[in-house]
Amino acid sequence: MKKPLFIILVSALSVNLAMSQVEEEKKETTRVERDQYEMKTLFNSNRSNGGYGAFWIGYSIIDDKNAFQFGGRGSWVIQHSFAIGFGGTGFINEYHYDAVLDRDVFLTGGYGGVYLEPIVLPQSPVHLAFPVLIGAGGVSFVSYDDVDWDSNYVEDYEAFLIVEPSAELELNLARFMRIGIGLSYRYPLPFNVSQSPAGAADSKAIEGLAYNLSFKFGSF
């Protein structure tokens, strides 16, 4: 009588241990599968979808002169791999002498619009993004008078439409922060800025490459 009871107890214990092992294996499999889709960063991991705010600084050549640019945008991130948002960029090139006006001049302005941003391998700590801006802006031809109380005068102004595709190499520094090193190209519609022959500028004054360093903060 005791022997069958002992066999039953041993069998029940064996079945219980086997079921526990199967359950642990299922949990481990689920954890591994989940980890495969977690956001990976250089210092930590795991971040859900959401949105971000970004700002950047950059360098370009505008009207054959060195130019500084800066900007920002806010975007909604969809499924980690695509973002859509709004933003803009401002720019100013270096002062240079205009013989017709007999004073220093420079070009300054800005543009903005909708950003569409495919993101390739967003879970990887180092990945690529390809933002494209579609929008409009304006540029001013400004003269600088250091005699008359250091005053600036807008000599001419023109509005334009613009498309600016970009390519960015991004680093996931943390779950909430990314840094991007990017290259973009401005395609504005033709326009004339200055009525002065020496200061005249057309679309080629704005068209060209730009090099940017961006900082993104949010939920990716």
Structural account:
The chain has 220 residues and is α+β, with helices and mostly antiparallel strands. It folds into two domains: 1-36; 50-218, Beta Barrel (Porin), CATH 2.40.160. The protein is 18% helix and 57% strand. The chain is built from two helices and ten strands; from the N terminus they run H-E-E-E-E-E-E-E-E-E-H-E. Strands 1, 2, 3, 4, 5, 6, 7, 8, 9 and 10 form a ten-stranded antiparallel β-sheet that branches. A hairpin with a 3-residue loop joins strand 2 and strand 3 (82-93). The longest helix is centred in the first third of the chain and has 35 residues, at 2-36. The relative contact order is 0.18.
Number of domains: 2
Helix content: 10-25%
**What is the strand tally?**
10
**Could you report the average pLDDT, rounded to the nearest whole number?**
82
Structural class: alpha+beta
- CATH class assignment of the largest domain: Mainly Beta
Oligomer: single chain
Name the helix and strand elements from N-terminus to C-terminus, one letter apiece: HEEEEEEEEEHE
According to CATH, the fold-level topology of the largest domain is Porin
| Beta-strand content estimate | over 45%
